């Protein structure tokens, strides 16, 4: 082993590294020039963060690998240019977003433990990928990606980032920007209630200008920080919604009156009123689940097996009252 270390240890051409960063690890490819028959890879501390079984030499026919300390002896058939490939658990990535005055920016957050990488080609795959959370089987996800190039298997989103040196620690890189047209939302979503006042959530809706991997969204408007919210994965061109918590000004006012009552059921008149307190338009989203069995007479609402859903636009300072009849078993 020591003789092979002396004869065949070659430096890697780090400037040509290809790095694909996943939510919990990274696939790294480094070019090497191999002597005939055998070569020793001096991995150093990288070996402790390399997923077992992921270290490979591409471009030659491997015969065996022998691990000794932080070095790996490769025996193979062939020689010349090849690629050293491994999965590195010391590098991971995710996407997050900022929304400032209607401008959406996508950021990549890369976390590296260990020595720096010189990524000549850098790709970030982010999204909801339960398979990738199991560190014991990262190769399964990579095989699936190889079988479906250009697609987003397991809910993964692919982003090409500029070549760069990745230093140890946290690195945050803005890589996509676009102006978006915001729709301000107020929402009540929950079980049917007869309370006089119903609380509302505040949020935003916009058309995704590019594919949005799941991540956190920070919202700033009028120079004020309005909060952070989870942003779900959204394909380009689809609506994205983010909810920032309870609205402190807007309220739904509700009145429920008994219209008639029999031995088996009763019918109620439900009136729900909202006055938009803001100097800008809002859209009210109502989604209520109703006690079963029920009959609902609510023109304009989208009837669902569990209740209904309705969207209602309101102009600045405008008030509207919604009325429906609800029949329930006694």
From TrEMBL:
<feature type="signal peptide">
    <location>
        <begin position="1"/>
        <end position="16"/>
    </location>
</feature>
<protein>
    <recommendedName>
        <fullName>DUF4139 domain-containing protein</fullName>
    </recommendedName>
</protein>
<keyword id="KW-0732">Signal</keyword>
């Amino acid at each position: 082993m020591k003789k092979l270390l002396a004869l065949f240890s070659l430096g890697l051409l780090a400037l040509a590294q290809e790095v694909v960063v996943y939510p919990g690890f990274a696939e790294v490819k480094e070019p090497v020039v191999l002597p005939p028959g055998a070569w020793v890879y001096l991995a150093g501390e990288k070996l402790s963060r390399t997923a077992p079984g992921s270290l490979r030499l591409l471009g030659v026919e491997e015969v065996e690998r022998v691990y000794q300390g932080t070095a790996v002896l490769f025996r193979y058939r062939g020689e010349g240019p090849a690629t050293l490939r491994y999965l590195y658990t010391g590098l991971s990535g995710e996407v997050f977003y900022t929304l400032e005055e209607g401008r959406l920016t996508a950021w990549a957050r890369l976390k590296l433990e260990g020595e720096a990488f010189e990524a000549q080609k850098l790709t970030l795959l982010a999204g909801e990928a339960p398979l990738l959370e199991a560190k014991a089987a990262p190769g399964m996800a990579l095989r699936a990606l190889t079988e479906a190039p250009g697609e987003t298997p397991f809910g993964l989103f692919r982003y090409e980032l500029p070549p760069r040196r990745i230093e140890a620690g946290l690195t945050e890189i803005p890589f996509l920007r676009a102006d978006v047209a915001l729709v301000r939302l107020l929402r009540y979503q929950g079980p049917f209630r007869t309370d006089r006042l119903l609380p509302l959530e505040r949020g935003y809706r916009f058309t995704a200008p590019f594919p949005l991997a799941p991540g956190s969204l920070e919202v700033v408007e009028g120079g004020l920080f309005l909060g952070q919210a989870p942003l779900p994965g959204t394909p380009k061109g689809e609506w994205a919604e983010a909810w920032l918590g309870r609205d402190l000004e807007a309220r739904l006012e509700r009145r429920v009156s008994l219209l008639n009552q029999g031995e088996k059921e009763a019918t109620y008149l439900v009136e729900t009123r909202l006055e938009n307190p803001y100097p800008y338009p809002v859209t009210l989203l109502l989604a209520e689940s109703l006690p079963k069995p029920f009959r609902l007479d609510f023109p304009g609402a989208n009837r669902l097996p569990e209740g209904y859903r309705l969207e209602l636009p309101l102009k600045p300072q405008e008030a509207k009252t919604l009325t429906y009849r609800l029949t329930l078993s006694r």
